[in-house]
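During the reporting period the student researcher (J.K.) took over the structure-prediction task from the postdoctoral fellow and processed the backlog of single-chain submissions. One of the processed entries is reproduced below for the supervisory committee.
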Amino acid sequence: MSATTFLSQFKQMNTKERLSIQFVDLPYYQDLARDRFAKIEHLPWSMLLKSSDSDHENNRFDILVAQPVATVETFGATTKITVGDEVAESAQDPFAIVNDLIETFIGYREDATIWPFIGGAVGYFAYDLGRRVERLPTKAQNDILAADMAIGIFDWALVVDHKQQRAAIVGNNPEINQQWLDRQVLHEDEPFRLSSNWQSNMTKQQYQDKFTSVQNYLCAGDCYQINLAQRHQAQYQGSEWQAFNLLDNQNQAPFSAFIRTNDSAIISVSPERFLQLKKKGN
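J.K. obtained the following C-alpha cells:
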C-alpha cells in the first residue's frame, strides 16, 4: 500500500476544523521538564530535548513530547507507518511521508507564539538515511539493526523557556495532556551499570593506520575534512534513563536528548556524540 493511499483514509476521517493552539501555563523551575519526563521515560516514543548547559549562550528551551498520533520508521528502502493499530509499509520518500503525516494530523499553523514547538515531528535521522537522498557506496556493515529514521508525530508538548523562566503545555487540548502528565508516577528503575568493559571496533594499530591514511589524504589535497570515528560497545543492565542523567550531569553539553522508541533508547549528550542503547541486557 502506498503512503498516500494509507493516509487518505485518515484525511477523510480527520475532517474536524483546525483548532487554535492553546496554552496551559505551568510554574517554572529549572528541572521541570526532567522531573516530568522521569515519570514517562519508560514509555515508547517519549522524548526529551534538553538545554543542559545553563551558561551557554544558546541555552533556552526544554521540549518534552509523548503519545504520538503517528510514528514513522525507515529501514533501508522501506518505511513503516503506524497510526493507532493500523500499520502500513511504503517505498515512498520518507521525508514526504513525514510531511504528509504532519499535514494530516497537525496541519501547518501560523499561530503567533514564543514557543519553538507547537506540534509536529520529533525523532532522529541516522547517517544511513542519506542513501535515500543520494547514491552512496555500500561498505558499512549494518550490525545495529536500528531504524535509519524514527519519527513521532506529536500534537502537544511541554515546553520550558529558561530565558524567560516560563513553562507551558501547548496543543489543541492542553488541559487533557496536563491531566495525563499529572497522573503519571515514578516507577522503580534498576540501577544502571555496565556488565562488561568497553570494547572498540578497532585495535590501537588499526586506528593509527587509519589516522595516518587520513593525514595523507588531507596533505594530498584529496579532501579537506574526514571524521575518523570508532565505535565503543559494552553490555549493560538497568535503566537507560539513569545512564542519560549520569552523562548529562557530567558532560553539561549545550544540548542533550533522550529518545525512546519501541526497541531502543538514543542518548545524545552533544550534537556530535550519542549512545544507542538497545533493550536491557543487549
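The committee noted the following: The first helix runs from residue 3 to 13.
J.K. will present the remaining backlog at the next meeting.
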